[in-house]
Amino acid sequence: MRIKIGSKEFEVRVSESDEDSRIGLSGTESLPKKEGFAMKFDGMSIIPITMQEMLFPLDIIFSLNGKVTKVVTAQPGSKDIIIKQPSDLIIEVNAGEAEGINSKDEVIFLGKKNDDGTVEMAEGGLKIVGNRQVLDENGKNQMNLKGGERIFSRIATRKMYELAKAKEYKKLGKFVITEVRKQDERPEEYAKN
């Protein structure tokens, strides 16, 4: 998966489990240039990073809500690295490769285009390469978009379903209008990518 942080891009492996995040790059002999490891967390937490079993130094990029909060360079064998700000995403890259990345730089997951033309994205991805698609939680294409469609979040869809199921049609109508207005009030850049 490609990830863009500020003006830099990395090919990252995204953690697939809590155990995967706990192990991270420990025991890895080396990391190719411009590659890394990304750990996503539900909600925001203060997460310690251990370097005790690392064999090479890392730049650790802490992020919250799609913005860099801090960049730390860590040496092998260092005690746990803990920053005071909570994070929902941590990216590890080779030491020195995060040079020029600053707090508040935007963090964007970029799509990985497959040979068949579909686009895979990590959950939480914000930008698609190629055609716009609706993807399921595994990154599989569910439908192609032509432009101008309205898409509601899973949370909003669940709320609409519950209101319809309860036959609360006036509340449902008001809720839909509120959600559409929110979409209309967002800056154009929000939906461009």
In words, what does this structure look like?
With 193 residues, the chain is of the alpha+beta class. The protein has 3 domains: 107 residues, Jelly Rolls; 34 residues, no CATH class; 39 residues. The protein contains 4 helices and 11 strands. The strands form 3 sheets. A 7-stranded mixed beta sheet has the order 5-4-6-3-2-1-7, with no helix packed on it. It has a two-stranded antiparallel sheet with strand order 8-9. Helix 1 links the parallel strand 2 and strand 3. The longest helix is centred in the last third of the chain and has 17 residues. The protein is elongated, with a radius of gyration of 19 Å. The protein starts with a strand and ends with a helix. The C terminus is likely disordered.
